[in-house]
Design a protein that fits this description.
Strand content: under 5%
Strand order of the largest sheet: 1-2-3
Number of helices: 26
Distance between the termini: 18 Å
Largest sheet: 3 strands, antiparallel
Helix content: over 70%
Length: about 725
């Protein structure tokens, strides 16, 4: 290992802390979640150091030579420092402060949740700090496996099915990405970001030769980002995952996917028009479809999940426009990067607000929770900050980044006009951009009105009004996170500091874009989207997506056709049909070869079985009567197996010494022999249950891919 060890600490401290947290939670009487809070606070403090260094113009690298053959390579710049800081901040707020209040004390899976959540924190930082595709892929796939536990947390049928979908998408898309990495390394001999870009700049490889490879590598990252049509996991995972985990799934894990797409765009195809147009098309479709799904949804967390898909589409539009400009458009580069930051922090607030609702109601349907926030000013304020930010209200953070993205489209249209070229497709993209902004305002207004202005039935509303306030730590997390949003909006409106700090990651060296808080053109664009949103809410949501029940009460109705579920309509039937067809080859030649092989293998198997059976019995009996006769233990292990008994005895010895010295007044009475035996039995039962699921097979497949990848590249 060499270089700045702080970068390594940012990745491996949370992963080591995960084990410490698990041991403390399971085997001591300290309140569950306390270790999580301390480790998240430590990570936040560590993350502040590199951000300070970058702001002072410093950079750093860390190398672990020889790790799995190619080694690990971390690098520090403005983008990486900012996103490691954002990740640490979101983990501290959602897991360190909010989660201890969210999970009931009786939650038997809390220790497991904390273990995998801290592992995911370290792996997420590993992705953002990666300086080559090898390092990014390793931590990206590890992150996919550990975050699986979030989706499957409560182990109900809906959660397990959503978790299977999540893991299936992660593994299959990861296989495609791995194929692309093999092809890239075979073609150019490096996976380093700088190496790839320098080879292209030197003309040793043409960008057009890398399009297919780039598309394959992009699949895994696009799936994690929730890009259409690989978004199928996202609307299903969020409703079943705990709200603190949903905040991270939406706010951070989707950004690791965007990280990969940014790397491909900026280093492999930095000025390729075909790639830029592809990113733009997928961005436009993703943002519109996500907004449409959110508009029809009547589940609070599902709506926010579909909203995340839509906002990812907005960012992809910026990436596409940046590629089309050769990364010379400050509006596109700064708009995409700034909207990434804005979306992360906005969804942190909105999902914690949804968690506050679920904590006290255990419901998410809008008809059940309507009126919940009427007499809750703190919750109202926090949700309002997220609501105004995401719809692009002027002077709030979403307004600034969306205005920059809109400017990038308009700028490209003007450039095409000046060159006498057709600009109709980009004008259509601009129209859909404004309409999608309106849909965003409409579905967020639906949530806001339902939660804070409408009333439930008299009995339910009275119960809502009498509920106690949020616990202090949860209230602090929600308030502090919400205060960041308007502050970031004001800073971004008059200064390009955040985006400028991050833009070197995309090799942008131009001037910062200053949109002007009261620029007439940007205010006009925001006004158009808000007016469209008002029209959609008044003319579609209220009359068409609501209807009266027998009591005359207007209820929200989910009118989205169930038959349009892509997973059940396309993916599952395709896999069920494709796999048997690939495995079954009904030819006479293969049938004869198979019969012959079975006969030979059957004879060899029978022969070897007899030899092994007789030979091993003979050898074992001889050893038992000679060498091992005196080594047999006279006393059986009292409890558990030999390993748990030995480990428990070791801990009991340490406790004995502590009770005689430091802990005389408050001796430790735990018998660790029993503790470890019980823990091992519980672990064995869980492993047995997991191995019966489809997800376990996918996990084994993914682990096999890591081993194969490491061996081939060694």
């Amino acid at each position: 290992m060499r270089g700045d060890f702080l970068l390594g600490a940012l990745v491996f401290v949370p992963m080591l802390g995960a084990i410490v947290s698990y041991v403390i939670d399971r085997f001591t009487k300290i309140q569950k979640g306390a270790a999580m809070t301390l480790i998240c606070a430590l990570e936040l403090a560590l993350a502040a150091v590199p951000l300070t260094r970058v702001m002072m113009g410093q950079s750093a690298s860390f190398y672990w030579d020889g790790f799995c053959g190619m080694g690990l390579h971390f690098k520090l710049d403005g983008f990486r420092a900012m996103y490691v800081m954002i990740a640490a901040f979101m983990w501290f707020m959602s897991q360190g402060l909010f989660a201890p209040c969210y999970f009931p004390r009786s939650d038997e899976h809390r220790s497991r949740y904390d273990l995998f959540t801290l592992l995911t924190l370290g792996e997420t930082c590993g992705v953002f700090l990666a300086d080559n595709l090898y390092t990014a892929f390793i931590f990206f796939e590890l992150m996919s496996m550990t975050s699986y536990v979030w989706v499957a947390h409560d182990e109900k049928p809906a959660a397990l099915r959503a978790a299977e979908t999540y893991m299936a998408v992660a593994v299959i898309s990861g296989m495609v990405t791995l194929m692309g990495l093999f092809m890239l390394y075979s073609k150019i001999g490096t996976l380093e970001f700088v190496g790839i870009r320098s080879l292209i700049a030197a003309g040793r490889v043409k960008p057009s030769e890398l399009r297919l490879i780039a598309a394959l590598i992009a699949v895994g990252f696009a799936a994690k980002a929730g890009v259409f049509p690989l978004h199928i996991w996202l609307p299903k995972a969020h409703p079943v995952a705990p709200a603190p985990a949903s905040a991270l799934l939406s706010g951070i894990l989707t950004k690791t996917g965007l990280f990969g797409l940014l790397v491909i765009a900026a280093n492999m195809l930095p000025a390729d028009a075909a790639w830029g147009n592809a990113m733009l098309i997928f961005g436009v479709i993703t943002m519109f479809v996500g907004a449409l799904l959110a508009l029809f949804s009547v589940d609070l967390k599902r709506t926010l999940a579909c909203s995340s898909m839509s906002q990812i589409g907005f960012i992809l539009v910026g990436v596409g426009m940046a590629v089309l400009s050769g990364f010379e458009s400050g509006a596109a580069v700064h708009g995409a990067l700034l909207h990434m930051v804005n979306h992360s922090l906005i969804k942190l607030v909105l999902f914690m607000a949804a968690g506050a609702v679920y904590m006290q109601t255990h419901k998410l349907n809008l008809n059940d929770i309507r009126g919940f926030g009427r007499r809750k000013p703190l919750l109202h304020f926090a949700f309002l900050m997220g609501y105004l930010g995401i719809i692009g209200m002027p002077l709030f953070n979403g307004y600034v980044s969306k205005s920059l993205l809109h400017e990038s489209i308009l700028g490209h249209i003007e450039a095409l006009k000046a060159a006498g070229l057709s600009y109709a497709p980009y004008k259509l993209a601009e129209v859909i951009f404004l309409i999608t902004g309106g849909l965003t305002a409409a579905y967020m207004t639906k949530l806001y009105i339902a939660l804070f202005w409408e009333k439930n039935d008299e009995k339910t509303q009275a119960a809502f009004d009498k509920l106690p306030p949020m616990p202090r730590s949860a209230a602090a997390a929600l308030t502090l996170s919400a205060l960041v949003l308007p502050a970031l909006g004001m800073i971004s409106a008059f200064s390009g500091g955040v985006a400028t700090l991050m833009s070197s990651f995309l090799h942008f060296a131009g001037e910062a874009e200053n949109i002007g808080a009261l620029n007439a053109e940007n205010l006009s664009g925001a006004a158009k989207s808000l007016l469209i949103g008002a029209g959609v809410y008044l003319l579609i949501v209220r009359p068409l997506l609501m209807e009266k029940d027998k009591r005359g009460v207007r209820l929200y109705i989910d009118r989205w056709p169930k038959a349009l579920d892509l997973e059940n309509l396309v993916y599952r039937p395709l896999l069920e049909k494709l796999l048997p067809d690939l495995l079954a080859v009904p030819t006479n030649l293969l049938d004869k070869l198979a019969d012959y092989a079975r006969a030979v293998l059957g004879f060899m198997g029978t022969f070897m079985a007899r030899v092994c059976d007789e030979g091993i019995d003979t050898v074992a009996l001889g050893l038992w009567r000679t060498l091992f006769r005196r080594r047999r233990k006279k006393q059986p292990v009292p409890i558990g197996n030999r390993f748990t008994y030995a480990l428990g005895s070791l801990f009991n010895g340490v406790v004995f010494l502590l009770n005689r010295t430091l802990c005389r007044r408050h001796p430790i009475t735990t018998n660790f022999t029993c503790v470890f035996a019980a823990g091992f039995d519980e672990l064995s039962a869980n492993v047995k249950r997991i191995t019966l699921s489809i997800s376990f097979g996918l996990l084994l497949l993914c682990i096999g891919l890591y081993i194969a990848f490491s061996y081939i590249l060694h």
